[in-house]
Amino acid sequence: MSKRIDIFAAALFHGMGVEDLNDLNLSYTPPFSSPWDPVQMGAQAWVKTMESGSRN
């Protein structure tokens, strides 16, 4: 959990947007998790939703 808080803290400190979260190079353990952190997966879903909403 503290890793995810650190991700958000770094994003806020650097003034990053939601789209920028996907550019972060975050560590992971292949047998236990996917290459995409849940924070990044949430950011991807947010961006996709915003893009599809702007087309309507």
- The share of residues in helices is 40-55%
* Helix-strand makeup class: mainly alpha
Could you tell me the mean pLDDT?
85
Strand content: under 5%
Run of helices and strands: HH
| Backbone shape | flat
The overall strand count is: 0
Our measurement of the CA-to-CA distance between the termini, rounded to an integer number of angstroms, reads: 36 Å
Number of helices: 2
- Which stretches of 5+ consecutive residues score pLDDT under 50? none
Instruction: Please give the radius of gyration in angstroms.
Output: 13 Å
Q: How would a textbook summarize the main sheet?
A: none
Would you write up a description of this structure?
The chain is mostly helical. The protein has 2 helices and no strands. It has helices at about 1-15, 40-55.
In short:
The chain is mostly helical. It has 2 helices and no strands. 4% of the residues are buried.
Give a topology summary.
Layout: H1 2-13, H2 38-54
List its salient traits:
mainly alpha, flat
